[in-house]
Structure formats: structure tokens, C-alpha cells
Amino acid sequence: xxxxxxxxxxxxxxxxxxxxEIEYTCPDCGPVRGTLDVVYDxxxxxxxxxxxxxxxxxxxxxxxxxxxxxxxxPDFIQPLRVGWxxxxxxxxxxxxxxxxxxxxxxxSGNVTHSYKDRxxxxxxxxxxEKGYSGIAAASSGNAAASISAFAASAGLPCHIFVPKAIxxxxxxxxxxxxxxxxxxxxxxxxAFDLCMLEAPKNNWYNRNTAINPYLAEGKKSSALEICExxxxxxxxxxxxxxxxxxxxxxxxxxxxxxxxxxxxxxxxHLVGVQAEGSSPLVKAFQQGRDDVIPxxxxxxxxxxxxxxxxxxxxxxxxxxxxxxxxxxVSDQEIVSALHKLPANSGIFVEPAxxxxxxxxxxxxxxxxxxDDDRVVVLLxxxxxxxxxxxxxxxxx
Length: 396
Ligand SMILES: Cc1ncc(COP(=O)(O)O)c(C=O)c1O
Ligand SMILES: [Zn+2]
Fold this sequence. Notes:
There is one protein chain. This protein has 396 residues and is of the alpha/beta class. It has a domain at 87-114 and 215-391: 3-Layer(aba) Sandwich (Rossmann fold), CATH 3.40.50. Helices cover 39% and strands 15% of the residues. It has helices spanning 30-33, 42-48, 51-55, 91-97, 117-129, 142-154, 168-176, 188-202, 215-219, 221-229, 246-261, 280-286, 312-322, 331-345, 351-365, 387-391; strands at 5-10, 16-17, 36-40, 87-88, 102-106, 135-138, 158-163, 180-184, 205-206, 237-241, 269-275, 325-329, 375-379. The strands form three sheets. A six-stranded mixed β-sheet has the order 4-5-13-10-11-12, sandwiched between helices. The protein is globular. Zinc ion binds next to loops.
């Protein structure tokens, strides 16, 4: 297969690296400021991918965009369901909200029932291409469940660092897929640091968010799908739930790549939605900072309970460049959205995903989104992932 990648580039100092010259982050700028962008040779991509070719493409997964994904050996792609998720317009909800041009991108049908499968499907290919004999990740739960499934499919040993407080369904997934689970007696941020220490010691490929440059490439694929599903007429606004900030960075990368390719004519505004009790990026945005002050966090939305977002530089850059914003919603607003969405649409999501919908409701109340706006809300995980959050809460 033809290589469509040009190079990797540090987000801060802009230094360029050949693919085989670097694994994770820029040595000069470090693991937080030195995250890398994957830059494509768009001339090559254009030869292999066009809007016309996509029209007749029968691949019902995000691999339909293979030339725009960082894969050299497609034999390593695992046969698990990822991407090409539905873009719903639930009539009753649209009517109630008086938003005829509102869409929900529902990623709960991926193989492990969260958005993270988009990234893990790519990470496993990179681990195999690079010849690692194991893969590791720290996660609040979904990324862990996701990479465990892809590792089980590939037969690669998988080592997972998660907080002890992980929801039961996510823990069950880890056990089912046969991962080596290290339960950390602390928050996600501690699990992340532990994995950073252990992965290089043991020669495991590190799937930790942000520091692995290929994850955002997987995470960008919903943006490609949204544009194609809307006949290359992008929405005005996309709402994304944010923890570490890798999804929102990836989504922005997806829109930008399509713009570079000439597939779309304008770029959407991105709205990053955080839970009030875990909102360091909202604060950084409001204070005009380009980095984050770490905070102690607590929210019902465990997947986005992150005190020190690892993809902070790219996430803030994405929202600024898109002319969007960061907003926070209270746990009560998240709970209310958690109940309102399934009852009026048939789509049951976990609290982190409901956070994006809560952000929409808030911005509607504040009249920052108008009736006629074309808006997409990303729904990033199934409600079955955390049923106690639902059963123990009251939406009224
Ligand atoms: C369901 C869900 N939504 C949103 C997010 C936030 O993604 P990110 O940490 O890349 O901002 C996560 C991350 O774990 C998640 O699991
Ligand atoms: Zn650098």
C-alpha cells in the first residue's frame, strides 16, 4: 500500500520528524507541549481518495477513508466494527427543541460501545506494524475496554491501568477480553502516570491518549463521516464531550484534513463541553491561557473526570482555530440530559456523552445556538456502560 504520510510535527516548536524517527512526543517540548500532528501528503491522498470514489465505496466502517488514516499494512486491521455510525435526527426531540437541523452522531454501536474504538482500531495496527509484543493503556475505562478488545482480536498481550472506581460494566469488558488489569488506588490522572512509567520499562506500545500521535487520527474519522453523511455540506457547530481533549482535537483534525483536500468549503465551530466538577479546559479557555492549571475533579461523568487533560494544547488550539468555545455543565444538567435523551429519542448514552447534549441545551437556553443552525452532537458511549449512574439519578 502507498504511504500517504508526509511527516509528524510538534504542535509547539513545529519541528518535523520522519515517522520512524519518533514514537511519541517531541523531545524538546516534552509530553504535554510536545504532542505531534500526523501530516499527510495530500497530493498522494487525492490520488487514492475522492468524493466520487466514496460514493461507490461499500466499506461500512471508518476504513472507507484508509488513505487518510495512518496505516501501512492493512493486514493488521482487525475485523471489528468501528465507525460509519448513524447520524440520527430524532423527530420528537427536534420538534421539542425546535431545531429541524439538529443531528446526533451515535457511536454507541462500535464494537466495545464507545467512540474509543476509532482510536484503538488504529493503535493496534501501529503496535503490530512496529513489532511490539505488548500494548498498554491508562484510561478511565472506555479506552481500556476498547484496546483490550482489539488486542484480544490480534492476540497481543494488553496491560491496563484504571482507577479502582471504574464502572462495573467497563471492568467486566476488561476481564472478558482477558486484559492484565492493574487497578490503581487513585484517580485516572495517577493511572496515566503509572502507565507512562511501566510501558517503556516493559517494551509495551503505549496507547495513552495524547502522547500517542496516531490516536487523534482514529478519532478524526467521525468528522469525515459527518461531512460525507451530510453530502459534504458541514454543520455550523459540533458539540463534543471533553476529558483529556483527544476526541475534540481529532475531530478538528478530520475537518481540517477534508478542507485541505478540498472536500469541504468551510470549517465548523467546535464546542467542547466539560462537567463543571472537571473543567480545567473551560477555565483555561476563559482565562485566555494556552495550557491548563491542574485541579481536583469530581463528576458523575466518570469518563471525562480528568484533572490534567493530556491533550490540552491541541484541544485549546482546536477550539480557538474553529472560532468555537468551551462550556461547562453541572452534574444536575448532565443527569437531566441523561434522562431526556433516551426518553425522547431511543438513544441511551452514558453520562459523558449526555454531557455534550447538556451543553446543547444550555447554549439553546442562552440563545447562543439558533433554531435554524445545523448542529451535530457527538454521542460517545452507550448507556449500558454505566447503568448505576442512570438508575441512581433522577432526571427531574
Ligand atoms: C464516552 C466518552 N466521552 C468522551 C470522552 C472524552 O474524550 P477525551 O478524553 O479524548 O476528551 C471519553 C474519554 O474517555 C469517553 O469515554
Ligand atoms: Zn517541539
